[in-house]
């Protein structure tokens, strides 16, 4: 089977219905043995230093991996995606543009999804069948999330890893399902975590590779990974369109707050970490979150892939000590 890359979560059911292997380029980038080397590849061809590290990583992965095509999310994710796609056109990589409508208009989303359905030459009824086949593994992910905040038997990183990987199921749904099932069987027999501070992590997945481990060494644990949880589609949907309308991440700060605020209360969150990526437009949205979230709040910023820098560690240590 050939592989289809994508730049952020898309209706993966359509790719699977076409018999293709879905590949979230972000997961390949950050899971690389040396992700900084991928950033260097992009900078060597001329990507500016003051461009998001994720975009540079995605560029390098795209030109190095053997992909049949890339689904590029032009609206609802990164403002730099258009330029990324244009530079990939120079490499003769086949691109399929996709856009989540800003106003969350279901009819406009249907048009966009039909474009994907036509490109992959699949039938909508078969896409729906694939969606229904994925419901059991999505339910396992919801169980994982509940075991994180309610049973306290899953670490923040473990929660992050499985939820962020649900964008493409690591390219193999059957194996992903088996691995997740085995993990949950092991986790349920653990003693519960007993950290003093319960944190929420908001924002795009971190480029800092040891964030969760540092937080747990300071006596805190992330029990709500906001965007990663959305990748798992944590709700019941009537059809494929309803599923991707309920999905909050691509529809802006206010759509995300509709999910964030009740989860903060339900999970008894002591403090919120808002992660922003250097040079990302989403840093501006920090204003909206600070105005609407009435829980102690800290904003941190990541630039290049790698371990946490000393300044960020000191700020987080002071924040957690304040919460204790």
TrEMBL record:
Iron as UniProt keyword: yes
Instruction: Quote the InterPro entries the UniProt record gives.
Output: FldB/FldC_alpha/beta
Q: Give a yes or no for keyword Transmembrane helix in this entry.
A: no
Q: Which family does it belong to?
A: Belongs to the FldB/FldC dehydratase alpha/beta subunit family.
Cofactor entry: [4Fe-4S] cluster
Q: Which keywords has UniProt assigned to this entry? A: Iron, Iron-sulfur, Metal-binding
Stated name of the protein = Putative subunit of benzoyl-CoA reductase/2-hydroxyglutaryl-CoA dehydratase
Q: Name one GO molecular function term.
A: hydro-lyase activity
């Amino acid at each position: 089977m050939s592989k289809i890359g994508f730049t952020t979560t898309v209706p993966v059911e359509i790719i699977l219905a076409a018999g293709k292997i879905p590949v979230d380029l972000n997961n390949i980038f950050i899971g690389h043995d040396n992700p900084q080397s991928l950033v260097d590849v992009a900078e060597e061809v001329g990507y500016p230093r003051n461009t998001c590290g994720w975009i540079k990583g995605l560029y390098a992965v795209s030109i190095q991996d053997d992909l049949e095509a890339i689904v590029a999310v032009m609206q609802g994710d990164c403002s730099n995606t258009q330029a990324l796609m244009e530079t990939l056109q120079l490499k003769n990589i086949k691109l399929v543009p996709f856009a989540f409508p800003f106003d969350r208009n279901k009819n406009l989303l249907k048009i966009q999804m039909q474009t994907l359905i036509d490109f992959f030459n699949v039938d909508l009824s078969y896409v729906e069948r694939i969606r229904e086949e994925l419901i059991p593994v999505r339910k396992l992910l919801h169980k994982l999330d509940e075991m994180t905040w309610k049973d306290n038997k899953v670490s923040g990183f473990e929660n992050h890893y499985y939820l962020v990987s649900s964008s493409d199921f690591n390219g193999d749904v059957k194996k992903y399902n088996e691995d997740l099932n085995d993990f949950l069987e092991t986790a349920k027999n653990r003693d519960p975590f007993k950290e003093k501070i319960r944190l929420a992590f908001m924002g795009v997945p971190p480029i800092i590779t040891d964030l969760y481990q540092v937080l747990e060494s300071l006596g805190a644990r992330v029990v709500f990974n906001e965007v990663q949880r959305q990748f798992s589609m944590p709700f019941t949907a009537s059809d494929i369109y309803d599923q991707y309308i309920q999905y909050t991440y691509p529809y802006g700060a206010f759509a995300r707050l509709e999910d964030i605020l009740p989860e903060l209360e339900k999970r008894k969150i002591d403090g919120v970490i808002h992660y922003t990526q250097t040079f990302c437009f989403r840093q501006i949205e920090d204003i909206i979150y600070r105005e609407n979230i009435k829980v102690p709040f800290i904003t941190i910023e990541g630039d290049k892939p790698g371990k946490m820098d000393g300044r960020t560690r000191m700020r987080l240590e002071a924040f957690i000590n304040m919460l204790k």
